[in-house]
Design goal:
Length: about 250
Amino acid sequence: MVEIFNWLFGQYADYSALFITLELIAVVFGVASVMLASKTNILVFPIGLISTAIFVYLLWQWQLFGDMFINAYYTVMSLYGWFNWTKNKANNTVSDHINPTSQQDRALKEAESAIQVERLSTKDLPILASLAAATMAFVALVYYFRPVINNGFSFEGTVLGLQLFTWVDYTDMLTTALFLMAMWLMARRKIEHWLLWIVADAISVPLYLYKGLTFTALQYVVFTLIAIWAYYEWQQRYRKQPQTAYA
């Protein structure tokens, strides 16, 4: 048991108390944001911004640049998603005033979020493919020049080449693409974004354990379970909501 504990948490002996505290705070806010997303609660975005901002700083310090890019992108997409969800909720509120429902129906709508969810459409596929290709190319470029970055952005004495890539780097490229596609679909309120989260989160658990970030790995275990449950929740919400109110 002691050996397992040391394997999971031994690396934290070399971390400062500040880094450990920040990682725990980011994990807590990250889990909270996913829970809010499962309930289509618009607070998912401001809560998530706290988590991603902290992870951007930590991952830069740990020189995990692919993961840092994911969280930087999350930060940008959270702002976009916040705007998109707010606009959709405002439109639905106006629609409710124009088309009043029965007291029972209104009570049901008030009990649920006014955010309307949608299914993936064929017009989304080219955008997803382009996003995935651009993301993998960008992350590959970052890892290609990683020796230069780690050398204080100096080419002196550095060696570059694809032969320096490891399986972790290639896995990072894959998960980064999946996460970025999922975040874009989430901002667009697409149900299928949860399927991408499930796959990417499940892959990230052993990946972060290998990187020595146990708390973050445990976070992705929770993320995977929430995503499975949330996919069912969003499908239920889609079936219950009016099928005419989409943005």
